[in-house]
Amino acid sequence: MEWRWLRATVRFDGAFWRRFAELGCVYGPEWWKRGSPPVIAAVIFSLAKAQRAAVLRNQRQVRGPQRWVREQWHAYRVFAELARSVTEAMEQWGPRPRPLELAVVGREILTEALAVHRGVILLTGHFGSWEVAARFLGELGRPVNLVMAHEPNPTVRAFEHALRTRHGAQVMYSDRSVFAALPILQALRRDEIVGMQLDPWGPPRASADIDFCGRAASFPLGPFVISRIARAPLVPVFAVRTGIRSYELRVSDRLQPTTAAETTAAFEATVRAYEALVRERPEQWLLFEDVWRERVAERGAYEMVPQASGLRLR
């Protein structure tokens, strides 16, 4: 067990490298923060064979087939964007955050959602730097809860938890229990902000298939169902990186489904907004797993509510 833990610690996504990265991101000189991410991205790109192959397939689906060199370049740009985003996210969540240039497009939509006082579900994805966007939530004057799964590498879980809660945010782990939706509903009833992610993974019975960049992909239904049950507004927000410490938060819509049909419509509208953003800036789509993997489970004709959210099928 100790040997396995040591191997996981020194793996490229392990605790040793995360802590080393934090030192550079927080305490390193400016030339290091600006110049090291592309180099580190190139090293990881060359070593992480499975992740590189998944990014190549995802980018090919979004951009269409291209020459080998161009496909490799586009895939590397995803790794480079990740390295830049991780650098700035660690800096922002660390003890010495630097000033950010942050423009919010659609701020009035978010203001109107908060004025309902039924809590707000902010739905985002692994795009640009969602962690920088989460850091911004603390400025909205409401308690913030981030819903996420545990890190795949167990050696970094304590480190990431401490990092994300350093400035007052609370973390809810959605993979801990079948009753994971209960604290989410309680937070919304306290008029708090709940940040959730919209990304095409998870168990088939917790998702629905929808056309995405020309091919069916599965996206989670949980946030939309919870929005309907809690009568809480759901607001898609995506962070676009526009330069060094420069971001644009795009608030696309305010959705508040009250019926099954409205839940489906909200789901489709949000996926369409996400798709448009991915097509606009595919290099900032930071997914390192196959999005269009084969779905082996069949769904029935009834409405599916995620078991992972602690809700029944109805």
Topology of this structure?
Elements lengths: L1 H9 L4 H13 L2 H18 L1 H15 L4 H26 L7 E5 L1 H9 L4 E5 L5 H7 L7 E5 L8 H8 L5 E4 L7 H9 L3 E5 L9 E6 L2 E6 L1 H9 L3 E10 L2 E6 L8 H21 L34
Parallel strand pairs: 1-9, 2-5, 2-8, 3-4, 3-5
Antiparallel strand pairs: 6-7, 8-9
Distance between the amino and carboxyl termini = 43 Å
CA radius of gyration is: 19 Å
**What percent of the residues sit in helical stretches (DSSP H or I)?**
40-55%
Mean pLDDT: 82
What is the count of DSSP helices, taking H or I runs of 4+ residues? Answer: 11
Largest beta-sheet characterization: 7 strands, mixed
What is the strand arrangement across the widest sheet? 1-9-8-2-5-3-4
How many domains? 1
Question: What's the β-strand tally?
Answer: 9
Overview of the structural elements:
By secondary structure, this protein is α/β, with parallel strands linked by helices. It contains 11 helices and 9 strands. The longest helix is centred in the N-terminal third of the chain and has 26 residues. The C terminus is likely disordered.
